[in-house]
Amino acid sequence: MMHDLYVHRANSFTIKMTMMIVICMAYFLLASTPFCMFFIVKSYLDPGYEETNNYVALARSDLIWTVCYLIGLTNYCANFFLYTAMNDRFSKEFRAMIRCQPSLRQVSIYTTGQSTKIRRTESTHLRRMAEEASPGIESSLSEYPP
Question: What residue ranges are annotated as transmembrane (predicted)?
């Protein structure tokens, strides 16, 4: 029963991650295609424009390059929104971080065979490190004579 639940969650997570990667890859191809096609077309047209001193065509070419470049840059902006929309865990953690709340992941205790292992989240690990940290610069400087 518990194993079936774990397998169902793992399969659901795998399907969601695969969909997210496919959508991100498709958007990357869509956003980078105009930029690549521009350089192919430009390699054929620009030599003729430069020979005839057609400055209007060269200016259009520069404008088209700018638009293609900006479309390509939207890929980086869109990735954030795609990750947020497609991944529930990322979305919840991001909202918690914006609200300055601790991580929503909880410490889970699980057993494997004869040993018990405790899996700590990042936030509990950081708290433990802060507790074990050195007492401060004042005490470390007092160890050395002036």
Answer: 21-44, 64-85
Structure tokens at 4: 């079936």
47 belongs to a structural domain: yes
In three-state secondary structure terms, 119 is: strand
Q: Looking at the whole model, is its pTM more than 0.85? A: no
Specify the length of the chain in residues.
146
Residue in this structure with the two tokens 């699980």, named with its chain if needed = 110
86 Cα distance to chain centroid:
12
In a domain, 51, yes or no: yes
Residue 103 lies in a domain: no
Question: What would the pLDDT profile of 84-143 be if each residue is shown by its tens digit?
Answer: 787 777 778 888 888 888 776 654 455 555 444 444 444 555 555 555 554 554 444 455
The two structure tokens encoding residue 2: 């518990």
Task: Give yes or no: residues 13 and 50 share one domain.
Answer: yes
What would the two tokens of residue 92 be?
Answer: 């919840």
CA angle in degrees (0–180, nearest 5) for 27-33-74: 50
